[in-house]
Known about the structure:
Elements: H1 9-12, H2 17-29, H3 41-51, H4 56-61, H5 65-74, E1 82-86, E2 101-105, E3 113-115, H6 123-135, E4 154-158, E5 169-175, E6 178-186, E7 194-198, E8 208-209, H7 224-234, E9 240-248, E10 251-258, E11 268-269, H8 272-278
Antiparallel strand pairs: 1-4, 2-3, 2-4, 5-6, 5-9, 6-7, 8-11, 9-10
Helix pairs in contact: 3-8
Amino acid sequence: MLHIPSIKQSVWNLLPDKLAVQLQYFRAHGRLPNLTLPMTFTEKVQHRKLYDRDPRLPVFADKAKVKHLVSAMVGSQYVIPTLWTGRDIDDLDFDSFKRPFVIKPTHSCGETIFVRDGESMDWASVRSQCRSWLKNVYGTRTREWLYERIEPAIMIESMIGDGTVAPADYKFFVFHGAVQLIQVDVERFGDGRERAIYDPNWRRLQVRSSFPDTPQRIDRPSRLDEMKRIVEAIGSSFTFVRVDLYEVHERVYFGETTFYPASGYARYHPASFDAELGAHWSLQKGIASPARTVA
């Protein structure tokens, strides 16, 4: 989220949504967005924030509720088990859950606490963080409308992988039911976060966005075709959605769905790629088709 030190949050929140979006976009990209006829991917994200009020978006963005939807659409075997969800964390016995597990809010992005085997935890601090999450209305500053429609809650789920390091995150950009881009993030929760970008056939693209291009070779996922079928089923009824998956021990797991990646403020290098990616997204098409399931 962009930090705006010169304007107090209370005053910023009073600005008209369109003006706030234009100012933030200018700060990120050095130009005003074309909101009348958006052409680039990042402009179309702004357009969606301002004008798309699809009532499904808050449900799919809710980290707890979306699991039920994904389970019905593609199968429960792809959903990471939820150990607990709710708001009353004061008397919750965190030690009663089988480690390793993850604690996160259901109504925001990029906020996670890992509880690993044998690791000493300051539960008072964890509860304080959870209470802070519950009070936070995510997306207000960036005018990400849908997050205001999600009831804040805390979710505890099993940690997949080796129980120590978060697995690589495969982020599929799905336009009108078809994968057009795969972004892979590694070391997501450390200081050395890196990224690689691929086309749907796993050809690496010479494109950078937000984080350094990783020098390491990332092998094609063994279940890439299965992963593409899953995300295209989930994304079949949306003009655009990013669907995040993991592949662990040759099993595929669903992570989350995102409708405003980086709030549309990430800069692509080369800059021309922003328009190339945006060309896949037709705002005039509307809904691609009824949601489908994986056969």
